[in-house]
Amino acid sequence: MTHRYRLGIDVGGTFTDAILIDESTGETRIAKVPSTPGDPSVGFLEAVERILREGGADAAAVGYLVHGTTVATNAIIEGKLAPCGFITTEGFRDMLEIQRQIRPSLYDLLFEKPRPLAPRYLCFGVPERLDATGAVVAPLDERAVADAALQLKAEGVEALAVCYLHAYLNPEHERRTREIVHEVFPEAVVSLSSEVAPEFREYFRASTTLINAGVRPVVERYLSSIETRLRGAGLRGQLLVMQSSGGVLTFEAARTKPVHMVESGPAAGVIVSAYLGGVLGFDNILSFDMGGTTAKTGLVEQGAPTVTKEYEVGTAARAERGAKGAGYPIRTPVIDLVEIGAGGGSIAWVDSGGVLRVGPQSAGADPAPACYGKGGTEPTITDANLVLKRLDPDHFLGGEMRLDEEAAWRAVKEKCADPLGLDPVEVALGIVEIANSAMVGALRRISVQRGHDPRDFVLVAFGGAGPMHANRLAAELDIPTVLVPMSPGTTSAMGLLVTDIKHDYSATLIQRTDALDPALVDRRYREMEALGRQALQGEGAAHAGTRFERLVDMRYVGQSYELAIPMGDGPAGEALDRMLADFHAEHERAYGFAAPGEPVEFVTLRLTAVGSIAKPGLRELPAGRGGPEAARRAVRRVWFAEAGGFTGCPSYDRYRLSAGAVVQGPAIVEEMDSTTVVHPGFRAEVDRYGNLLIRAGG
To answer: Which of 101, 110, 435, 502 is most buried as measured by Cβ atoms within 10 A of its Cβ?
Structure first.
């Protein structure tokens, strides 16, 4: 059977989204099912079965399936990593205990470092030593390796991380260690730092390797369970998983390097924002993805998502993202995201000082917001929006799910309004505005704190709750245009289908630019390109073209942080002068100053091998007469602070709005998977692809 369909499945904290694209007609179908936090694969398979059934598609006709998942992140946050052992150079056993001499909150006397990823009794130092050039100073003690492996086997560990000093320059000791471990402890899953993160700074490398080792058995079980059941259902196409850098990996590659999956789901949202910007002619974009559990913001500059190597994972890191030292660092490329606990299911509560707070706790998919009628009793942002009448209880999820207005009112009144002695409607507005304030802070962190002016960007708003809040956020930050794509609740799933296969490689090479060996740089890149070409050829079924993207981490000599500068395709010697100029300019933008007279050095060479995948196009709306009247559904009284209370507000069926239609605020635009709120003083125009463009103006 010829392959006709592409399928994207995005598992979120509250809903699992599916999107099916017919390659021959361009027709797109979407579906949402509640997530199953106890076992995410249940919701995943339910979404696959439902969308194929509703689309009348045969599983055998699916060419490839791309999956965005938080299973790796959740394992870290919930402390459910596989029992893990650690082998390192003798004398460095306490590396995981010492961590770094920084703290996320300078004056917090009660701050505790994150718990070590492997307890001290499962950490072993073995005699061996390489110097800073990779030369052997002391040979590997193979007997000590075997003894350590046997002790770890007796302790019942599943996974093992190996991180020797300077192994990024010479991996021989680590590779030999794996061979010895497999001889005496064959069932152990072994991760080597020289393969997972071949870069200098041993704690960062060790942390990345341990996280990879700890999530490997978890991810392996999850992907194998999904694959077995998909194959059993007749799906023969290629299975791919989204990675945190914005590319996709095959299931096979993801099993060995699952650390690349830590922000798998959220990355897809930034990728689709960049894709939409490319189609519509917007180069600079702030992506805003508000789902049921969290809100995530990312930045796209000149058409490319910003990628960071300074990323931390873990409970505390998630709670106060941006404060270094709160979690476990990982040294793999991750799309730069700011994530906060403000989703539709975030719980509002009154603290001991009598102050109204929102999040970071979430009602999630179970017990869900009070208005879902699943047993939840805590007031959430979704309940507050229902009290303000911004949601229509009869048209949620296209009428498939009826919201309980009384339960929402009762939750807000009993849990927040009564303790504060205030009117429930005022408190509901307070809940929404507190959440908005937190999200404005997240947007400032991703833009202003990175040296960007939000007024130069377009805000792309999606996720089930994103379009409901976006207009207010843009007004706060003076962002001139909000873009709400079609089917915003499943936009992240669309991002899974508009990205390419990617493999990331790195090699530390510390050399001053005035004493650079360009031939060595070129040789290292050729070696990484050979690895990338080999990996992509092994996955050749899914992509057409291959390209390589080169970056170099550069810094002023003596600095302890780097900036990534593109090298281009030519020889290193020819690119050097341009790269130096680019480095000074980027330093000026990022930090507010540059020092062109100071010596500069290369630190790490980075290569991304990209296998291009044909992208589905956006479907144009049939030409209409331009007026919104045909789409008007009803007029209801909705609370807006700008109007001083409840005011008459028309609601529109988005599927009946034609290209060119202009909706004047205040207005509510409803569709199956989301609701867009247009505030007084703003207008929403429908472009030829059905996107809503919200701008100021009566």
So the answer is: 435
